[in-house]
TrEMBL record:
CDD domains per the UniProt record, alphabetical: MFS_DtpA_like
PROSITE patterns per UniProt: MFS (PS50850), PTR2_1 (PS01022), PTR2_2 (PS01023)
Name of this protein: Peptide MFS transporter
Record-annotated Major facilitator superfamily (MFS) profile domain positions: 16-423
UniProt keyword Transmembrane, yes or no: yes
Bilayer-crossing regions: 20-43, 55-74, 104-123, 144-164, 170-190, 223-240, 260-286, 307-326, 332-359, 371-392, 398-416
Keywords: Cell membrane, Membrane, Peptide transport, Protein transport, Transmembrane, Transmembrane helix, Transport
NCBIfam families: yjdL_sub1_fam
Signal peptide region: none
Subcellular location, record wording: Cell membrane; Membrane
Annotated organism of origin: Luteimonas galliterrae
Amino acid sequence: MNAPPAHGDWFGQPRGLSVLFLTQMWEIFSYYGMRALLVYYMTKQLLLGQQQASLIYGLYTAAVYFTPILGGVISDRWLGRRRAVIIGGTVMALGHFLMASESLFYFALLAIALGNGLFLPSLPSQIDGLYAKDDPRRGSAYNLYYVGINLGGLLAPLVCGTLGELYGWHWGFGAAGIGMLAGLTVYVFGARYLPPDAARATKAAALPRAASKLRGQDLKQRLLVLLAIALTVMLFRGAYEQVGNTIALWADSGIDRRLAGGFSIPMTWFQALNPLMVVVLTPLFVAHWTRQARKGREPAAAQKMSMGALGVAAAYLMLAAVSGAVPQGQASWLWLALFFVVLTAGELFILPVGLGLFARLAPEGHRATTIAAWFFATFGGSLLAGALGTLWSVIGASYFFALMAAVAIVAGAVLWRLDRPTRRAEAAHAGNSGAVAP
């Protein structure tokens, strides 16, 4: 493995971490900005029915997280991570600008999905190369990265959503494209702070040696654990990915968004609450987990993920009760705000924790591919979310939210059962063959 770049730190972390999260911050800005408008654009501008719009939304978000499987392999084997990021980001920016034309709508969605396939796994797979193996900062790197990129998610609905609602959908999509170009600019000018890509000939020669050092049983155990977690997170995503789908529809028609003075909260603004809570809550959780770790009480990765799924279930149960209490009217917007607080608290226990787990257990030379496998869970979950979303207009809001809670509870129960196998895989990977605590 290449040594970490020898540069000074920014804010106590390698400079490359700032470059990576600023790059992805702008990519997230473009993606979430476009996503905040997508369902409204289809139903209000293209005049598609709710069920058709939900299916297209689910297929699009699924494609965004399916293409990284192929993109990760292309990055690891041929392009290298830097060229994959630049090519992928350029194609994504083109797709966002093509959204300005209604006749190119489906082609624009395809371009964004294809570009994302190269971009998404190639960026976070560079994080580990910024740190030496014994660097104590490695443990918090993915949490800090997750906070950084969610700044883009916070700004996206406020900028792109507001432009789309008030001045026209195409203005919002154009702002998303500009955000993608900003991310590419940061990446290109900050490339000197990132770990260099190994020459592909050297990498090809090194892979058999690295693989030969892995005991077959160790590698098999790790891959089986990662597969089981990915499938379970796929189920969890079926409920979680309703945020940009049916939750957005409920924000439009199921809540009272009026404030004093006759001002009505734009429906897209609620999409900013999730990334805002990520930024606010992450330092609190990281500090809490650090204190637990010092006392030897920090929950294992699968335990955290299970608690996160149950937290998301609690958020949906709250909405089920609220919507059931006002079946013919509109609930206060405060309930939707509280939903995002509880949902995000659960999210922070599962999504960044899972990403870090996949990065730690990734075989050498296949890091981008392994990170892509984590995003494959989002692909399957998005397909499931789109299919589940078609039930929205059939069974009603209260029963639908109760169903989403049930889906998250099942995922939480399975993740809890995966705790021991996950800890055994981590211990084996670290070279520790001792017993796993019960």
